[in-house]
Amino acid sequence: MLKLVDDDPEMRDVLSRVSATGDHYANEMRLAPTEVHSEERIVVCHVSPISIDDARLLVEIRDVTRRSQISRENALLIQHGAGRQMIRQLAHEIKNPLGGIRGAAQLLERQLDDPELREYTNVVISETDRLVGLVDTLLGPGGPPNKRPANVHELLEHVARLIEAEDQRKLIIRRDYDPGLPLIDLDRDQIVQALLNLVRNATTALDGQGVLTLRSRAVTNFTIGNVRHRVIVSIEIEDDGPGIPPDLQDTIFYPLVTGRPEGTGLGLPTAQELVSRHGGLIEFESRPGRTVFFVRIPLQQATENKGE
User: Fold this and answer.
1) In whole angstroms, what is the distance from residue 236 CA to residue 233 CA?
2) What pLDDT band is residue 81 in, cutting at 50, 70 and 90?
3) What is the DSSP letter of 174?
């Protein structure tokens, strides 16, 4: 039995406990990757004491990984919608008075003869312009996607070159591409920006040294929200850094949420917004030593999502 789950310590403890006490066990647990299953699995496990021939325990395991993923995807979609609505309302409320503040500072500047006093109005104007730029970022890139057939590997390589040009000398970038992926209709600029935001997050977590893996896969019969797609493209950004703090994992796609003092908290929400315009979704898995962001985009999203 333990060979099937690669001698998982939690499973070993459960079996020992039921065998010793005779109590039944029923709970959900996570099983670490094995040689047979390369990804972490979520299972519902029932263990019961029995006495049939040489058997002493009955173990029932039901894999609910995909069910949990669908629930999490729906939560991410709800989070994205709520975050986008909240930040747009907030940004509009902020932007309206900024124009008045800037105009008043310009009028005041014209009435001042003292150059030292005009320096203060210049500060007001420049800071107002900075806030307007921030608000425009919060509102997000405008316009519908301008989709053209694109090779996702070319986009990944473009992002990799940008990162390598930033003097990441101790960063190792590995490629694990599916050569059979076809072209997919994408807005190149929007997807490059989304991927760049994710890769920059990963390199920041690595602090310039570690292993960054860029991976692509075709996944069949995949559900995004309430839509089941025959084939999707999964672009994966993996790093071997410390992982996302547990207290941030449920909120990282909300605007202005960041674990870094210098961070803006806009990179992930912007990436999610850009991918959502292609009928897709970004999700993630994170633990110390392995964080993966998955960019899921339907292969036929150009025809399946005509309402964009």
Assistant:
1) 10
2) low
3) E
